[in-house]
Amino acid sequence: MFVSEIFQSLQGEGRYAGHPSIFVRTSGCNLRCIWCDTPHTSWHAEGEHLTVAEILQQTKAWVQVEHAVLTGGEPLLQRDLPELVTEMRAGGHLITVETAATHFLEGLRPDLFSLSPKLSNSRPGSDHPKARALHDGNLNLDIVPRFLATDCDVQVKFVVETAADLAEILTLVERWRLPRDQVYLMPQCDNGDLLVERGRVVAELCRQEGFNFTGRMQIELWGNERGT
């Protein structure tokens, strides 16, 4: 597997926000979100190739931490991901796999799929024509129902830039018949001030529509140094 980093911190987003977690961040992504907060795993993928055994050896240092997050980049591009999930679950970990849900791996069964389907606000501008073409070509939202059809628990997290994103979100929620308690809205931001500003807008949308709000603890506390 092509891995950017392995570390232990607190989960910053979604259902398990605040939980001590082991993070295995893979490198490489088939999208080019313009606001990507880990460009070293997507736009300019960096890392090292590790076997499942080598990853497990590193995560043994945090055997007392139950929750583990396999993230990226796009972790579902790593063909050994099902094996890693199986081995970590066998070791007593509760596994969340975070994915943009544009690629599906048969046999992958984490405890929680955290899907983050990308909205139009993720699209690179015309000043990045190659990245835009790659992003548009791989942004296949028809893959999402395959995750919903598994026996795994699922949360669906949308990154919101402005209130105008709501129409697109509602269309997808209806299209996929998502229960609203599975849907999380998260402000798109890269600093604490913007988190508060956009967070207030997103919180109001959640209040109106019955969605869950998720902040971004890693930005609020650490300026995005740790967390996902």
Please give a structural write-up.
- The chain is an alpha/beta fold and 228 residues long.
- The protein has a domain at 2-157: TIM Barrel (Alpha-Beta Barrel), CATH 3.20.20.70.
- It has helices at residues 52-59, 81-90, 129-138, 144-148, 166-176, 192-209, 217-222; strands at 2-10, 20-26, 48-49, 67-71, 94-99, 112-115, 153-160, 183-187, 212-213.
- The chain has a 9-stranded mixed beta sheet.
- 37% of the residues are buried.
- The mean pLDDT is 95.
Give a short synopsis of this structure:
The protein contains seven helices and nine strands. The protein is an alpha/beta fold and 228 residues long. It has a domain at 2-157: Alpha-Beta Barrel (TIM Barrel), CATH 3.20.20.
Q: In what range is the share of β-strand residues?
A: 15-25%
In order across it, which strands form the biggest sheet?
3-1-2-4-5-6-7-8-9
Strand count: 9
Quickly count the helices. 7
> Helical content, roughly?
25-40%
- Main CATH class of the domain at 2-157: Alpha Beta
Mean pLDDT, all residues: 95
Give the helix/strand layout.
Elements: E1 2-10, E2 20-26, E3 48-49, H1 52-59, E4 67-71, H2 81-90, E5 94-99, E6 112-115, H3 129-138, H4 144-148, E7 153-160, H5 166-176, E8 183-187, H6 192-209, E9 212-213, H7 217-222
Parallel strand pairs: 2-4, 4-5, 5-6, 6-7, 7-8, 8-9
Antiparallel strand pairs: 1-2, 1-3
